[in-house]
């Protein structure tokens, strides 16, 4: 199969160790998304965005400001490689595959065990949308359409009371 399809699986991340390597905008966006599902996130980078530094100061994220080491992946369930160094991202991918850790290399969809979906959340409803890494703008349009439909549904539900 040339274009792999990814199975949409909803998992409990609350007690899983998540490691994000990188401190830039992509890493920060991934962490922001993950924080909706867990507080067990370690971010490792010599430098990071102001937002990520603030998340570290407030205790939402365990921020380690140094280069990553292989031992940082001990007991990790999931690793996100979001550095601007493709050689480092490739090494992270290799280590994770050896160790049986789910990995997502942010700039290389061929090195992803999972994708970050577009997410819509309202109360207990969580909807994830992906275009299998091929068309991010289409996935975003679908997420926005679902958001509009869900909000219209809420308006209809409230008007019936």
From TrEMBL:
Pathway: Porphyrin-containing compound metabolism; siroheme biosynthesis; sirohydrochlorin from precorrin-2: step 1/1. The keyword Oxidoreductase applies. It comes from the Bacteria. It catalyses: precorrin-2 + NAD(+) = sirohydrochlorin + NADH + 2 H(+). InterPro entries: Met8-like, NAD(P)-bd_dom_sf, Sirohaem_synthase_N. One of its GO terms (molecular function) is precorrin-2 dehydrogenase activity. Gene3D superfamilies: NAD(P)-binding Rossmann-like Domain (3.40.50.720). Its EC number is 1.3.1.76. One of its GO terms (biological process) is siroheme biosynthetic process. Keywords: NAD, Oxidoreductase, Porphyrin biosynthesis. PANTHER family: SIROHEME BIOSYNTHESIS PROTEIN MET8. This is precorrin-2 dehydrogenase.
């Amino acid at each position: 199969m040339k274009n792999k399809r990814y199975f949409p699986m909803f998992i409990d991340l609350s007690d899983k160790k998540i490691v994000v390597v990188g401190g830039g905008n992509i890493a920060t966006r991934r962490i922001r998304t993950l924080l909706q599902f867990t507080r067990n996130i370690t971010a490792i980078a010599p430098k990071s965005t102001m937002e990520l530094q603030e998340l570290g100061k407030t205790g939402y994220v365990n921020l380690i400001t140094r280069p990553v080491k292989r031992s940082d992946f001990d007991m990790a369930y999931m690793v996100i490689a979001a550095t601007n160094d493709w050689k480092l991202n490739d090494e992270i991918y290799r280590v994770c595959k050896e160790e049986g850790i789910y990995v997502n290399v942010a700039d290389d969809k061929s090195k992803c065990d999972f994708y970050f979906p577009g997410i819509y959340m309202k109360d207990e409803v969580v909807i994830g949308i992906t275009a299998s890494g091929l068309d991010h703008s289409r996935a975003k349009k679908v997420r926005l359409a679902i958001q509009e439909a869900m909000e219209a549904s809420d308006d209809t539900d409230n008007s019936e009371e």
